[in-house]
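Forwarding these from the shared drive since the link keeps breaking.
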Amino acid sequence: MQTKKLIERFHSEIQVNYFSIRLQLILAILIGNFFCSPSKFLVFDERYSEPRFYLYWFLSSLITLCVLYAAHVFNRFMDKKLSWLTDFKPRLIGQIIYGLLLPALLTTVFVLLVFLPLTSKGMDAIGPYIRNEFRFVFLFIFILNLLFLLVYVIRFAKFVKDQYVEAEIEKTELKELLIEYEELQVKLEDGRMEDVSDTVMLAPCLRVKYGYEDNYVPLSGIAFIKSSADDKKLLTLTSSREYTHNYSLDTLMKILDHNQYYLMYRRYIVNRSIIKGYHALENGVIRVELKPNFEQQEDIFVSRQDAADFRRWFEMK
């Protein structure tokens, strides 16, 4: 179950970029140069002396670029429908049919449509050329599919590594947070914080900073949390005072009450008590409207994918 969730998260968050357009262009020029010679269709020794060679080189490169780009789009489409990790057999079948055989046949058709009108010898020249070069076309597309699979596996491995590191960081942060909380409880029990109200003493607290001073804020008193540009978090309380801390939003969501707090766009955590209402926009995104005391905060949105879940959460009694 853990592996399946990891794979689903990989496909929801990562769109594998197999080959950049610059690399596709360079490959197209090199392979176009290779495939437009040597045969009777274009004599290798004389090709650079004939102006038409450069036209053939350009057209061959254009065909190759179209095949590369189409293969790139096809693989990204298939990643959403049939993952190599969860649907290996159907993905392999689809890859052979639509990622190998069909591109090879389409390349042959493109060559016929593009070059047949340009030679006076017609099929007598193009026929031998295609028979001679088709095996190289097929081999090239086969290698291309293997490269796509290799890039996919490498990208997934990097994603897993990043998730592991992130989980370890969150685990450490959460452990530090719990230790600080336990230390605070010991201090409270020892009577070292006599000036703290009974409400704060009984409530779980979060260690934060106000300027250079350490403070302890009850979790139930947090109204709004957001990620700032410098990767620190700002806690806005009902008193409109802001505190800084270094805990990640994911770590805080593990200790906050999910019935009272909602994580939005992975940038904000908002307390239900400060939400005045919400409005659905034309694209399915929800704009959250805060109560007057917090109107100075930037606009907060809920993504289209999370819109239904947010409505259920907000309307829950």
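-- next protein --
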Amino acid sequence: MTKLVAIVNVIAWSGFWAFGYLAISAEGLTSGQLVIAAVLAFAGLVTGILAYMRLVRASEESGYAKRSNQLDAATRERAQSEGSGT
């Protein structure tokens, strides 16, 4: 499943860059064509970000990547109460 998400990630980012470039630099396109290129670029951006975040989560769960240094809720609340001085 991770390989499929990686393939989707590559295709999505490729679509983002290709259609984004068309939307920005193309001359002689109608406004409808520009809107379609911009929508496809946005779809590639959103899909690419979601696929990338899913790959990051999968790599952290598998142990391939180090987990992020996020605190759990209880530790964060304790640190905030100690740091506020009240």
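The chain has one domain: 2-84. DSSP finds three helices and no strands in the chain.

- D.
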